[in-house]
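BUG-291 | component: ligand-complex export | severity: low

The export step for adenosine monophosphate jobs runs without errors, but we want the raw record kept on the ticket for reference. Input record follows.
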Amino acid sequence: MNTIATVQQMQRWSDAARARGQRIGFVPTMGYLHAGHVSLLGEARKRADVTVASIFVNPLQFGANEDLARYPRDIEGDTRSLSSAGTDVLFLPDVKEMYPEGFQTAVTVDRVTRGLCGAARPTHFQGVTTVVAKLFNMVKPHVALFGQKDFQQLVAIRRMANDLNFDVEIVGAPIVREADGLAMSSRNAYLSGAERRAAVCLSKALQAATAQVECGETDALRILVAARRVITDEPLARLDYAALVDPDTLEDIATVQAPALLALAVHIGKTRLIDNCILNRSKLQASSDKP
Ligand code: AMP
């Protein structure tokens, strides 16, 4: 595996791959890789001839009181995981390379970033779409893979790629979970033993809501009550939001008839975790992850 640290070298590598007629698959990450990231690389390999993974802990997407300084890092472990996943290039720019002196441009996606995580993290998605737009111009991928774990991020990136005519196919991949149902996340490393056990309440809340829908419940408020109860019953958990929204527009829905996104954000101690699932998936073409 090649490690590339500069924008210019990355662009030249991608130009050469394109000139050879190779299709480039791209997986952007913030590192501290787990099986969720590795599954995205596997999907990228299926869809492309060569794969690029980036690791960049993007300061723009962290709020002033968030965990930028203590975000977990393990470049050696990540390099091993990427090599054994058959990745061709690790793109590893530093902050100065990404945001040189004088940088002052941003990409903003409007409506789909206002609610859900955007309410508590008002600058987060602008940071994400700005860095992803830059990474697309650096890596020049044909296809880019994103996890459905960060569903709102996936919707915002699809919107950006569409609205700004990026010539990149955006693919969403299912959530990879631990054996007890907890969605894998680099932030799970922050959890103490007791918090780790408590964190299973997110996937349990999704399961409680799914069970309601399977019993024929369609009223969004009643489904949300079932999900929220699981969180409020867990002493170490504090609910940020539980919402039932349209999976394309992310607008609230009152009844679950078509496929609907149930999204959660929950504080477990000082760690904020998110999770989601699609309810009424049977009415959706592609099927995959279940909480
Ligand atoms: P991050 O390093 O957290 O920025 O995540 C990089 C990519 O991995 C994003 O597209 C995430 O949605 C995706 N991802 C993170 N956790 C998971 C998971 N448990 N399952 C699938 N994809 C994930």
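Assignee comment: Attached the raw record above. Residues 285-289 have pLDDT under 50 and may be disordered.
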